[in-house]
Design goal:
single chain; alpha+beta; Small Protein B, Chain: A; seven-stranded antiparallel beta sheet; 4 helices; 9 strands; globular
Length: 156
């Protein structure tokens, strides 16, 4: 019997609140430019995306406020935890997203940070912030779905 094929993905951290605060129209996977101690810290799970966002700067897309903690054995060559990190995307994707951010009021928010085939990747979402009315609608929809599931699947 053949074993299930491993995709080579390992989740490091996730921005769970982003789906509640933003309505996303598009997502893309981007690479990160990191130094050695940052890669080691990510493998140890020392990361947080809670305040992070991406902005176009010149011809690049830069990830700001993403916290990658210090890797203890490399403390002599330590990196700054919230330094700006360049994102690796194709030129046409950067141009398209930068135009939407400038003209239409979109934000670029990192949704998750993971390793894919040994390389650090970040999943970015292009979205608008939700108003409190939109949040109430999403909460109501989630609760009604939960109630329907309870009605269909009674406890055993």
């Amino acid at each position: 019997m053949a074993a299930a094929k491993d995709t080579g993905e390992r989740l490091v951290c996730e921005h769970r609140r982003a789906r509640f605060d933003y309505e996303f129209d598009d997502t893309v996977e981007a690479g990160l430019v990191l130094v050695g101690s940052e890669v080691k810290a990510l493998r140890a799970g020392e990361a947080s995306l809670s305040d992070a966002y991406a902005v176009p700067q010149g011809v690049d897309l830069v990830l700001l406020n993403a916290h990658i903690g210090a890797y203890k054995p490399a403390s002599a060559f330590a990196h700054l935890p919230t330094r700006p990190r360049k994102l690796l995307l194709h030129r046409n994707e950067i141009d398209k997203w930068a135009a939407k951010v400038r003209e239409r009021g979109y934000s670029i928010i990192p949704l998750s940070l993971y390793f894919k085939n040994g390389r650090a990747k970040v999943k970015l979402g292009l979205g608008r912030g939700k108003q409190s009315v939109d949040r109430r609608h999403s909460i109501k929809a989630k609760e009604s779905k939960r109630e329907m599931d309870r009605a269909l699947w009674p406890k055993r």
